[in-house]
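USER:
I wish I could look at a protein chain and see how it folds. I am handing you a single protein, as its sequence and its fold in token form. As I understand it, each token names a local backbone shape. I hope you can help me see how the letters and the tokens relate. The protein I mean follows directly.
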Amino acid sequence: MENEEMQSSQSINRPLLVSVILAGAFVVILNQTLLNTAIPKIMGDLSVSAATAQWLTTGFQLTNGVMIPVTAFLIEKFSTRKLFLTAMILFAAGTLTAAIAPTFPVLLAARVLQASGAGIMIPLMQTIFLLIFPVEKRGAAMGMVGLVIAFAPAIGPTLSGWIVESHSWRVLFYMILPIALLDIVFAFFALKNVTKLTHPKIDLTSIVLSSFGFGGLLFGFSSAGNDGWESTKVTVALIIGALALGLFIWRQLTLEKPMLEFRVFKNKIFALSVFIGMMVMVSMIGVELLLPLYMQNALDYTAFESGLLLLPGAIVMGIMSPITGRIFDKIGARPLAIIGLTIVAVMTFLFSQMSASSSYLYMMVVYAIRMFGISLVMMPIMTAGLNQLPNHMIPHGTAMNNTMRQVAGSIGTASLITVMTNNSKEAAHQGLSHPMIQGMSDAFMLAAIIAVVALIMSFFIKPMNASKKGPKVVKEPVAEG
């Protein structure tokens, strides 16, 4: 069985496999932000409040965050084809249900179904790419992954804003359903099994603890952005999440074959790459959320205009991700991270200095340059860390990386919104003319400080000549097995 799997990984049609996986991942990840600017239309059509409608986005992210930690187990339990096809079928079923949903509960259930597929897709895509490409070409491969992960959610608000201005929000789902169905058909014929199966036993206790742990933290931090940290709901969710996560980690360290391997953090470079990636995610996601809020609430721009402002940055990141990957293969992650995080820190600081007179073009250019900086950091940092792990640990590394980024995104968003809200109130009490702008400036300053901390940490990444030695050492256990 092992020989068959090794042969299939060597004889695959790599370009075809990559195309099928990227197409599926693109439509799946696009849905993370597709409804952001369509929420008001949905509220009117289905007669729900803003707080209720927001669950279409929060519920998707929450389910996504709960599914990701389980993927390491799923990748070792089920073949590549079965897992990819299952993820895409779940997503397509959710998309069809969302398009015809007669009521809000049905629409929310459809979003949860979509997210069940999406949560499997991202770690699976990264694991497959790391296994089918040699170490010296992984940067370029993960650059393509970065293109999808960054570009797809970035164009979501712009695309939905444009469509819902003249069409029903249901068109958003009808539009991506044929692409998902076509990808399922192509995957059925083209996809090969490339992952090594170890057939771990299902540990229901770990699954329950993981769901309550990561789910509780994600829900608590997400709710804190709207309800405030003093909310009972937030406090209870965070306590349950922290306790369940602590028990989950303890259980994984005591099991012979854990569902999610926390021992990956014993590798210092991997651990460093995860923490830098978390800080970059806080800075990126937080500003992507704050900027449209700032434009619509403080400067009276429309949802479409605020979404359109983010588009050039998304295009820059989409173009740069594959290029950055190739550069990474030549010079390593360290110089890219130092340059990229310097750009991110400076551009975020410029956002903190904005005023009511800041022009649309100025904000668009600063955001685009900022995304250029993030494109130099995001995937190279992740790839540098994962390159330190042996092949049999890569599913656990990708699941851990994506889980930590999800948690960081929720924590960062909640923290930045809290700073913005509290400081806006304080500015209003002081009688300042533009209190919300003051609150936004303080939140952007916090994001800039986080970027500076990540920049300092990036100096501790191994240089290229040292990091290239890592994978050669860790490959040996795989050859023996």
About this structure: Residues 201-258 form one domain. Confidence is low (pLDDT under 50) at residues 1-9, 467-481.
